[in-house]
């Protein structure tokens, strides 16, 4: 009898161990929401095939069955809950697990979560449902950025502080995207500056790197030199005071007009006009001796003007007759006393752009502070935000 009890106990122990270690026990498994969800308008087809959805898969996928993608009208996204997602039996896309960085382009016939066609002129957000296997609860992601499908030819991506990447989908330029110390200013996302320096990913074919002026929150000569070393076909445009810090002088485009004057050059079809503008005086500092360049870039059939740290004054703008340029997108510094109705009126009278993007925000300033004055402007504050035009 004693031997039987021992055998029974051992068998029970073995059964318990198998049940604990086996895949059939899902009680200890969980799933979480995906990270880095974004949606982009990548072509001009005018339907769902314009949409590309990217996200980072969850680290532990043991309890995951698959990812489920929903395209939701932005107007309805506030009420798109986990329960709402789980109630939908069609009008979604299942994405297999197993790929760390997911990038999915929708089919032209894909529908939104309401069963409607995905069309131009409607704003959409993406959601990813992490589908747990049997016994494991599902988890819904936060919504992606909003995107409206529209005919466009350029993409302007926010890097950080006053920095942008402007691309026509084949090649591009950067302005103030290789800064030094950004303490107190809107930061650059992890890994993005090094990706720009190495010319990887979306930053693979940058033709021109530009710096508006020599302040550290706009340019680091060490970062510029790393970029030029890795991108031998690229040129750099910087004020004359910075040119001596460039290691390879053959990559310096010598465009250094006097204040109130301009100079221009074309790089592989991208036309760049340099405007020498006065730097603003703020924070009790006299910046009158600082060379501040504005850059008017013609790319993809669009004109984009970046003003750097411009002094908003009629005298500063008048020599360039900017209303005649018919600017598509104007990039302006927006912080402190630069945000004013008087400056807005000056821009309308002296430049008259079709669109405005506000840049150069301190971390402590909300976008709404800018939009209270520039009601129709796009305001960039989070690294890797973008707009298409």
Describe this structure in words.
By secondary structure, the chain is an alpha+beta fold. The protein is 17% helix and 29% strand. It contains eight helices and 21 strands. The protein has helices at residues 2-21, 82-87, 192-198, 221-230, 240-243, 314-317, 341-350, 367-371, and strands spanning 35-41, 51-56, 64-73, 93-95, 101-105, 123-132, 139-140, 147-148, 155-160, 163-167, 172-175, 206-210, 235-237, 262-267, 270-278, 291-299, 302-306, 329-333, 355-359, 378-379, 386-388. The strands form four sheets. The protein has a seven-stranded mixed β-sheet with strand order 14-15-16-17-18-19-20. The protein has a six-stranded mixed β-sheet with strand order 13-12-11-10-9-21, with no helix packed on it.
Helix and strand layout, with pairings?
Layout: H1 2-21, E1 35-41, E2 51-56, E3 64-73, H2 82-87, E4 93-95, E5 101-105, E6 123-132, E7 139-140, E8 147-148, E9 155-160, E10 163-167, E11 172-175, H3 192-198, E12 206-210, H4 221-230, E13 235-237, H5 240-243, E14 262-267, E15 270-278, E16 291-299, E17 302-306, H6 314-317, E18 329-333, H7 341-350, E19 355-359, H8 367-371, E20 378-379, E21 386-388
Parallel strand pairs: 11-12, 12-13, 17-18, 18-19, 19-20
Antiparallel strand pairs: 1-2, 2-5, 3-4, 3-6, 6-7, 6-8, 9-10, 9-21, 10-11, 14-15, 15-16, 16-17
Helix pairs in contact: 3-4
């Amino acid at each position: 009898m004693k031997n039987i009890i021992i055998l029974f106990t051992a068998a029970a122990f073995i059964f318990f161990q198998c049940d604990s270690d086996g895949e059939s026990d899902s009680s200890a498994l969980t799933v979480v929401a995906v990270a880095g969800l974004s949606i982009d308008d990548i072509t001009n087809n005018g339907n769902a095939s314009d949409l590309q959805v990217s996200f980072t898969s969850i680290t532990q996928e043991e309890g995951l069955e698959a990812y489920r993608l929903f395209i939701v009208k932005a107007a309805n996204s506030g009420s798109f809950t986990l329960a709402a997602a789980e109630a939908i039996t069609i009008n979604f896309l299942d994405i297999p697990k197993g790929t760390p960085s997911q990038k999915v382009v929708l089919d032209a016939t894909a529908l939104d979560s309401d069963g409607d066609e995905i069309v131009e002129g409607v704003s959409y957000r993406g959601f990813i449902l992490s589908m747990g296997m049997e016994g494991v609860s599902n988890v819904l992601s936060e919504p992606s950025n909003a995107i409206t499908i529209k005919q466009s030819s350029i993409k302007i991506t926010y890097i950080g502080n006053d920095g942008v990447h402007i691309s026509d989908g084949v090649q591009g330029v950067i302005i103030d995207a290789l800064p030094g110390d950004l303490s107190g200013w809107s930061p650059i996302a992890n890994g993005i500056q090094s990706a720009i320096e190495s010319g990887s990913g979306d930053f693979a074919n940058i033709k021109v790197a530009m710096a508006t002026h020599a302040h550290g929150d706009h340019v680091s000569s060490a970062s510029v030199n790393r970029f030029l070393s890795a991108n031998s076909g690229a040129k750099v445009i910087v004020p004359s005071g910075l040119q001596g810090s460039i290691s390879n002088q053959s990559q310096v485009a010598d465009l250094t007009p006097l204040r109130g004057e301009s100079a221009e050059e074309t790089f592989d079809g991208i036309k760049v006009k340099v405007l020498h503008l006065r730097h603003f005086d703020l924070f009790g500092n006299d910046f009158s001796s600082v060379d501040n360049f504005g850059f008017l870039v013609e790319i993809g059939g669009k004109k984009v003007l970046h003003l750097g740290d411009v002094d908003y004054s009629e005298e500063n703008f008048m020599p360039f007759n900017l209303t005649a340029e018919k600017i598509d997108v104007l990039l302006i510094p927006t912080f402190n006393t630069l945000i004013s109705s008087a400056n807005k009126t000056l821009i309308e009278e002296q430049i008259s752009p079709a669109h405005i993007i506000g840049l150069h925000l301190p971390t402590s300033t909300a976008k709404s502070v800018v939009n209270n004055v520039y009601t129709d402007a796009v305001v960039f504050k989070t690294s890797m935000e973008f707009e298409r035009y």
